[in-house]
Amino acid sequence: MIIAVLILIFSVLALIAVLELFKKRQWQQLITVLMLLAFGFTLSFLLAIGIEVPNPNKGIEFLIKGSGLPKLFD
Q1: Distance from the CA of 48 to the CA of which of 10, 31, 55, 67 falls in 20 to 30 A?
Q2: Three-state SS at 68
Q3: Cβ atoms 18, 33 nearer than 8 A
Q4: How far, in Å, CA of 52 to CA of 33, rounded?
Q5: HSE (CB half, 13 Å, CA atoms) of 11?
């Protein structure tokens, strides 16, 4: 039931966003919206079926520590 509601919500969101951008021929924005919707749907779907999604903070901390940025702010 949760997955059906999730699919319905994302379908309505995609339909509204895609039609408007398609009419205006804004292809770059359309691609961006579709990618963000796909990413959001994937994360929501994984949470809905019970798969634990890793915390994005750990990845961000790893990138910042690896780039040497903390030395700039110390």
Answers
A1: 31
A2: coil
A3: yes
A4: 25
A5: 6
pTM over 0.70: no
Q: Which of 25, 1, 62, 65 is nearest to 54 (CA)?
A: 62
Given a cut of 90, whether residue 31 has pLDDT beyond it is yes
Query: Tell me, what amino acid is at 6?
Result: L
Amino acid identity of residue 68, one-letter, is G
Residues 57 and 42 sit within 8 Å (Cβ to Cβ): no
Closest among 43, 40, 20 to 30, alpha carbons compared:
20
> Burial of 44 by CB count in 10 Å (0-12 exposed, 13-18 middle, 19+ buried)?
middle
